Amino acid sequence: MQGGRRWMGAALFMVVAGVGCAADRGGEDAAGEVASARAPVEDEQTRAANARFAVTVVHEGEMETRVYDGLGSQHSAFAGLVVPGATGMWRWEEGTRQVAQPDCGCVSEQMMEGAEEPDPKACLTDRAVMTGRFINDTTGESWAPEETTMAPEDRWWEVSMTPVGAVGSVGLVTLCVDSYYCGAAHPGVECEQLAIDFSGGEPTQVEVGALSAALGAEHFEGLKLGLEEDVEVEPGDGTLVALTPSWDAEEGRLFAEQHYAFGACYACSDGEWSSYTVSTYVDERPLNAEVAGERPPQGLRDLLSASGWEVRAVSPVPRMAVATPAVD
C-alpha cells in the first residue's frame, strides 16, 4: 500500500507540474484559449435581436426610415430617407435658395424692340430653387450635388430632387434640371440618378450599374416605346439610368426595378426621363449582394413580407450608427 501511495503521489506531482509548465509555455495564448472557451456563444436568435436594419418605406405618399432589429421589433424612426454608413446615419434633407435668373418676358420685350442680341443679364430677377443634401447627424458632415450651388444667369432653370431609397449604404436620389434659353424653340430636361456610397470614410458617387447589372441589347429587340408605342428603338442604345428598390415577399429580399432610356426625337420624348429619350422598365432585377448586404433574419423578413408596405431599402446598420437620434 505504501508503494502504491508513493506511485500515486509521484503521478499527481507530474500532472500538476505538467499543467504548470504548459501554462508557462502557453502564456497569453493559453489564457486566450481559456477566455474564448468561457465566452458565451451567440445563437441565431441573439444575433437577430442584436442586429439593426434601416428600413425605408413609402406610406401614404410620405417616405420614412425605421430601424428594426432582426426579429422585427422597431427601435426608432426617421422622417424621409436615411442611409446607414460607416461613420453614422446620413439623412437626406431639402430646402430652397434664392438665385438670379432672367425673366423671359423681359427678354421677349428686348427682341420686340429690335435688339439684335438680347441681354438676359439685364432682365435678372430672383427666384427660389430647390436644394438638397445628405447630412451625417453624428459627425456634422454633409454631401450635396453640384446642382445645389449652380447659378447660371443666361437661362431660366429649376431643379427637382427626389429621394428614391437605398441599396445597402448607397443612397439613391433622382435629380432633374429643367432649363430654357429665352427665345429658344423649346425647353430641355436633363435627369440623372445619384448613387452615393457612404460605406467608407468619405461619401463617393458610384455608377447605378454597380448596384444591379444591366441587361444586354438582345432583351430589347423589336421594342417600341413612346406615348403611342410607335417609336422603334435601337436595342444597343438602351442605357440603365435609374433603379427603384422593392421588396419581394416570396424571396424575402430586395430586388430592383430598372429604368432604361433610349434616344429619340424631341417630339417623341415620353417625359419619363431626359428630353430626347423614351423609357422602359424591367422588374425584379437582382441587386449586387456585396453592396446590398446579407438577407435580413427570418423575423424581419416575415414582417416585411406580410406588411404590404412599399419598401425602398433594407440596409444593415453598423453598430456605431445605431445610437444616432431619430429625426422629427
UniProtKB/TrEMBL annotation:
Superkingdom of origin organism: Bacteria
Protein keywords: Signal
Alphabetized PROSITE patterns for the sequence: PROKAR_LIPOPROTEIN
Leader peptide range in chain numbering: 1-22
Name by which UniProt lists this protein: Lipoprotein
Species assigned in the record: Lujinxingia vulgaris
